[in-house]
Design brief:
Blueprint (H helix, E strand, L loop, with lengths): L9 H10 L5 H7 L7 E4 L6 H10 L3 E4 L6 E6 L2 H4 L3 H4 L3 E3 L2 H10 L6 E4 L6 H9 L5 E6 L2 H14 L4 E5 L13 E7 L21 H21 E11 L8 H10 L4 E4 L9 E2 L3 E2 L2 E2 L8 E3 L8 E8 L9
Parallel strand pairs: 5-6, 5-8, 6-7, 8-9
Antiparallel strand pairs: 1-3, 1-4, 2-3, 9-15, 10-15, 11-14, 12-13, 14-15
């Protein structure tokens, strides 16, 4: 292990060794010390991907297409700073977003004219992506408890030409009380310890990390997920996601909700052709988890991807009786 990696917290490195399969460890270590490439997607509300490719080539922007998402691009040259100075960016034809962040909306798969909840929405990467996927139809309620972040969300909505989003300022844990079982699909991309974004050459990415913080976050995540499920219609779909490696914030949270809502939820298999992923843990150290958790997926840090965890849950029946 080189000097750069040794700058990362010792307890975090121990966790990495426990969580990452041995055959992927070197690749993950490389991902933790490499500045990730800039990635972006087409805003199909304003331009088709085919048309965008022509404009990128005319502007001498070199790129690589993403195999698992037809609207995704990896920037090869020029720099991100130069890209956002182009007319292509200023016109709102593209949205700069990490590849891993594009995965939860793809898995949620919102449909035209549905009613969608983005429970922890700001600054709006996934919100605008879902609006794009829905062709500005239906209704997306974008909730956040930070007014500053909602201001950033509003800016992104306007720049991308999104008109189907309605903003809410509310505590996500209690949001369901206002809209009990009202949404066809719910995305709950929760606040987390951000381990999937760590870079040993950038201390800002890990300076606030601590094992104790993970426990606090896991408690919050459980109630955000339960709130998301309570806001979803029976028969609807909930996607839970984090950008962290911690089992406590990932499999541990899903296992908790399956135990709380026995028989009401089903973890569905996730299939995205071409996406490199591993299945969720059904046991970790001395802890056994619900066998359904094998259907969750983990994305490990790499040169192009942040670390991510995603779980797709089908709501089989009402869960509101638990609160009566």
């Amino acid at each position: 292990m080189n000097d750069c990696l040794l700058k990362l917290p010792e307890k975090f490195l121990e966790q990495v060794a426990d969580v990452v399969p041995e055959e992927l460890l070197e690749e993950v270590y490389k991902g933790l010390q490499t500045r990730r490439k800039t990635t972006f997607r087409t805003n199909t509300l304003k331009i088709s991907t085919a048309e965008l490719e022509k404009k990128l080539k005319e502007a001498n922007v070199e790129f690589e297409k993403v195999s698992w998402f037809s609207d995704g691009f990896i920037l090869l040259s020029p720099s991100k700073k130069e890209l956002i100075e182009t007319d292509i960016y200023k016109a709102g034809y593209i949205y700069v977003q990490s590849l891993s962040s594009m995965i939860p909306p793809v898995i949620l798969d919102p449909k035209k004219d549905e009613t969608i909840l983005d429970l922890c929405a700001a600054p709006g990467s996934k919100t605008t992506q879902m609006a794009m996927m829905m062709g500005n139809s239906g209704k997306i309620v974008a909730n956040d408890r930070s007014r500053v972040r909602l201001f950033k969300l509003d800016h992104n909505l306007k720049m991308q030409g999104v008109t189907s989003v309605f903003k809410e300022y509310s505590d996500g844990k209690d949001f369901w009380k206002k809209y009990p079982e009202k949404f066809d699909r719910v995305l709950v991309d929760v606040p987390c310890s951000l381990e999937g974004r760590f870079n040993c050459s950038d201390p800002k990415t890990f300076k606030d990390w601590a094992p104790g913080k993970i426990k606090v976050l896991a408690s919050l995540q459980k109630f955000l997920l339960r709130g998301a499920i309570s806001a979803c219609k029976p028969g609807g779909t909930i996607v839970y996601s984090t950008c962290t490696l911690s089992v406590e914030e990932n499999e541990g949270v899903v296992d908790w909700i399956l135990d709380k809502e026995v028989g009401a939820l089903e973890v569905e298999e996730i299939t995205i052709s071409g996406l490199k992923k591993v299945v969720g843990f059904t046991s970790f150290k001395n802890k056994k988890f619900n066998s359904q958790i094998k259907n969750c997926v983990r994305i490990f840090p790499s040169e192009s991807m942040e670390g991510f965890f995603v779980c797709k849950i089908k709501k089989l029946k009402s869960t509101l009786t638990a609160f009566e």
